[in-house]
Design a protein that fits this description.
114 residues; three-stranded antiparallel beta sheet; 1 helix; five-stranded mixed beta sheet; globular; Jelly Rolls
Length: 114
Amino acid sequence: MALKISGKEIIKKVKIADSGLGRLKGLMFEDQEKFNYALVMIMPKEGQLEASIHMMFVFFPIDILFLNNEKKVVDKVTLNPFHPNYTPKKAAKYVIELPKGQAKKVKIGDKVSW
């Protein structure tokens, strides 16, 4: 399963985190060399606080996309290791963590699929 932005593949491998524990763990303690996939976190409900994330115990920078219920990008950011907390600018239902640089060409409003 690949991650596509407006129909164009940007990364081949996708992992889904839809449980509370999976979302909490995210990329904590992941090895940067093994992070060659998109981690899609599905939040229980759409919201800004519900989609906020932390970078505790993530040892490398990553790109993050925030999507609404329609899977459209509402915010994107690159965060460095141990960034305390980030809340998206708009309500999000999906949070996608990507290797740094993978989201360079992604724009707000782009449609995402996997």
